[in-house]
Amino acid sequence: MRSISILGATGSVGASTLDLIRRDRDKWRVVALTANCSAVDLAKLAIEFDAEVAVVGDDACLGDLREALAGTSIKSAGGKQALCDAAARPVDITVAAIVGCAGLGPVMAAIEQGGTIALANKEALVSAGDVMTAAVAKHGATLLPVDSEHNAIFQCLAGNDIAEVSWITLTASGGPFREWSQAQLEAAAPEQAVAHPNWDMGAKISVDSATMMNKGLEFIEAHHLFPVGLDRLRIVVHPQSVIHSMVEYRDGSTLAQLGPSDMKVPIASCLAWPKRMETGCKPLDLPAIGELTFFAPDETRFPATKLAREAVHVGGAAPATLNAANEVAVAAFLDGQIGFTRIAAIVAETLNHDIEPAPRTLDDVLAVDRAARIRASELLENA
Ligand code: NAD
Ligand code: MG
């Protein structure tokens, strides 16, 4: 029996993880499940999976959680510190599936336990960068990438020396607006942005996918997980999302990982690692897919990947600033406050201000994140 905690259990990645656990219920002991505020959903999951503790990040929702858990022996807690305390409970594997930099504190708490973390929460790694990778090394923790591209790269690197790699190619679907003109992009509505052609995901990552900021964040994520050098990382648009990423070795061999567009596949690869498990996903039907196509990214219509590349080249506080500004801008877009193309513009304008000094600790990263949110919010108001 293996123990597991799921941070962000009520979200899309959380649901896929719990689906996998349901398939093999007797093999898992669920320790902590967390959510932001969906107390009733969280309580249902905690009861179904007989979790030891259920935690809401927003302590205003703790009352609802307590009510929904009344009569059970499941412990409940609320607030940011409670999320970190839950993440610090010793387990065999922690699935980090909170969205945004809000997940950083809990991820760091799990890392400090020296545990194995299946990381979906890319914003945490983008913001903390070297602060996180140094903590992983210091505490002997293991980071397994859940993000499908990084999971693909991880699989393609297995058993090989990273020094033999000449290129890592991240594939991108191009999102729902891949073929839209600039004028159409300017008028894009939130419900169009969240309707991804290949993947069923949370709202924030769906918008990131539409702006291509998701690939920008993934570029930075890949840089930290697989340090081959920024000039050896590239992005290619592959609309079918069948090849999840590729690694090219110096002898000219390219290894690719293929699979259905279902997050259960990379999540299962982390849960069972270094073994394999059943997912119930339909196998790929290549003759039905017919064609795999590839395009260079268009950074004129989708400037986000360029902004992310520039931010990681600058280093220091720039990636955390880029991420925080993007979170603020995406929330404003989903809220109907700004148009679609303003998202990347707000990120660029936030990065143009004086940037904080390079963060050295978790608190420094959180300070950069806060400062960038304030700047980005001011830009929203002045727009
Ligand atoms: P989601 O919006 O569906 O779920 C997010 C989860 O985080 C929910 O449980 C929510 O309650 C919790 N949460 C949100 N804000 C919080 C806060 N402030 N404090 C504490 N908890 C909070 O998101 P998702 O699509 O499951 O994505 C989760 C993470 O995984 C993101 O970082 C995303 O980029 C990454 N990811 C997702 C997919 C996917 O297919 N959905 C694929 C690759 C990577
Ligand atoms: Mg991805």
From TrEMBL:
GO terms for molecular function: 1-deoxy-D-xylulose-5-phosphate reductoisomerase activity; isomerase activity; manganese ion binding; NADPH binding. It comes from the Bacteria. It catalyses: 2-C-methyl-D-erythritol 4-phosphate + NADP(+) = 1-deoxy-D-xylulose 5-phosphate + NADPH + H(+). The keyword Magnesium applies. NCBIfam families: Dxr. Belongs to the DXR family. This is 1-deoxy-D-xylulose 5-phosphate reductoisomerase. It comes from Pontixanthobacter aquaemixtae.
